[in-house]
């Protein structure tokens, strides 16, 4: 395999390395990931995260195992286990399906490696394409609110929603960003704030509960978020809290956009109700764990509900920004998302 390097994922001398995102921003620690157990643990613990990123990390690990001589059965088992590592982001399922197809080829070892490399390289191109489409939506001086982390840490390229913002910044549009902290795991505060700082994009960090007041005060011009899975009718599963932002945005007349590569589309899900939502550990809501250790502020046995994602109905989305273009409600109603938007305006 050729070496590859990105913000949070590297392949060097047939070894996969991931930046441990659970330690950011305090510490930049790279993990060598040699087997499925290590990657499943890293995905569960959100050491690597983001819909495209977990798919690419899984694909590259299978390719590394193929390169190291694992037999077809072992690779098939790896693909099956990794496919189940997290339930909501469909990119992971699509990637593992592609590798399962490659394993059925006569020259399966080469096919697996080529498929994983194509997924990695393809994601970079998809990010660039959707960022170009999305940046065209952005006006001068816009104050854009975003949620969770959708940048270079979450993809192999420049990101999705954050990639759009980055492109608009590079085009000197003078944008600034409201960064939702994104409870409970603080991907906004820990990761998006860090990425925007590195890029030199002006931002202000806010708690999730501040978005309503900011919109009421007319201080938000647009909301752009990413997605973990988009149903055929345009319903969007994304980080918990996204739905609330969409309701707020509609109430205040603020345009709401979802940015994702077509690998996040799931035409097999007719609507968002069919999207499985991951439930996570109670400890994440009772307190926080990070590089600085663990802090619990709730009663240690407080009962908790902790869905990692929610579903935003298509009716609340103004723009679906894909690598194939920007789609509005009329295009989505006409079926744009059932075939990746290809061929539609
Ligand atoms: O739980 P996470 O951090 O993996 O959730 C990530 C998100 O919800 C992102 O918005 C989504 O995966 C898109 S990343 C380009």
Automatic annotation (TrEMBL):
Top-level EC class as recorded in UniProt: isomerase
Site (Transition state stabilizer): 148
Origin: domain of life: Bacteria
GO biological process, one term: L-methionine salvage from methylthioadenosine
A molecular function GO annotation: S-methyl-5-thioribose-1-phosphate isomerase activity
Task performed by this protein: Catalyzes the interconversion of methylthioribose-1-phosphate (MTR-1-P) into methylthioribulose-1-phosphate (MTRu-1-P). Also catalyzes the interconversion of 5-deoxyribose 1-phosphate and 5-deoxyribulose 1-phosphate. Part of a bifunctional DHAP-shunt salvage pathway for SAM by-products.
Gene field: mtnA
Entry's family note: Belongs to the EIF-2B alpha/beta/delta subunits family. MtnA subfamily.
A UniProt-annotated Pfam family: IF-2B
Active-site annotation: 228 (proton donor)
Residues the entry annotates as binding substrate: 49-51, 86, 187, 238-239
Record's catalysed reaction(s): 5-(methylsulfanyl)-alpha-D-ribose 1-phosphate = 5-(methylsulfanyl)-D-ribulose 1-phosphate; 5-deoxy-alpha-D-ribose 1-phosphate = 5-deoxy-D-ribulose 1-phosphate
Protein name: Methylthioribose-1-phosphate isomerase
Methyltransferase among keywords: no
Record EC number: 5.3.1.23
Pathway: Amino-acid biosynthesis; L-methionine biosynthesis via salvage pathway; L-methionine from S-methyl-5-thio-alpha-D-ribose 1-phosphate: step 1/6
Keywords on record: Amino-acid biosynthesis, Isomerase, Methionine biosynthesis
InterPro entries: IF-2B-related (IPR000649), IF-M1Pi (IPR005251), IF_2B-like_C (IPR042529), Initiation_fac_2B_a/b/d (IPR011559), M1Pi_N (IPR027363), NagB/RpiA_transferase-like (IPR037171)
């Amino acid at each position: 395999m050729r070496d590859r390097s990105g913000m949070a994922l590297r392949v060097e001398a047939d070894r996969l390395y991931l930046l441990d995102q659970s330690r950011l921003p305090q510490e930049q620690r790279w993990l060598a990931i040699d087997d499925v157990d290590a990657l499943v643990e890293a995905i569960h613990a959100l050491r690597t995260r983001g819909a495209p990123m977990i798919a690419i990390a899984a694909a590259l690990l299978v390719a590394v195992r193929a390169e190291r001589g694992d037999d077809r059965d072992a690779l098939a088992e790896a693909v099956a286990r990794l496919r189940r590592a997290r339930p909501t982001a469909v990119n992971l399922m699509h990637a593992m399906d592609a590798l399962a197809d490659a394993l059925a080829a006569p020259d399966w070892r080469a096919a697996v490696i080529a498929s994983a490399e194509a997924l990695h390289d393809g994601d970079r191109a998809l990010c660039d394409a959707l960022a170009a489409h999305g940046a065209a939506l952005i006006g001068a001086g816009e104050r854009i609110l975003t949620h969770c982390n959708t940048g270079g840490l979450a993809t192999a390229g420049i990101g999705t929603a954050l990639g759009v913002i980055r492109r608009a910044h590079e085009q000197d549009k003078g944008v600034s960003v409201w960064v939702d902290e994104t409870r409970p795991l603080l991907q906004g505060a820990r990761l998006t704030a860090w990425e925007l700082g590195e890029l030199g994009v002006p931002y202000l960090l806010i708690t999730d509960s501040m978005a309503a007041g900011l919109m009421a005060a007319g201080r938000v011009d647009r909301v752009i978020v990413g997605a973990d899975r988009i149903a055929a009718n345009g319903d969007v599963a994304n980080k918990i809290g996204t739905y609330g932002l969409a309701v707020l945005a509609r109430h205040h007349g603020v345009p709401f956009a979802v940015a994702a590569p077509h690998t996040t589309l799931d035409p097999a899900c007719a609507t968002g109700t069919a999207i499985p939502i991951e439930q996570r550990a109670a400890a994440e809501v009772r307190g926080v764990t990070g590089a600085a250790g663990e802090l619990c502020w709730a009663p240690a046995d407080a009962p908790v509900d902790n869905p990692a994602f929610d579903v935003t109905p298509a009716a609340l989305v103004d723009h679906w920004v894909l690598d194939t273009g920007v789609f509005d409600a009329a295009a989505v109603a006409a079926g744009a998302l059932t075939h990746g938007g290809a061929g539609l305006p």
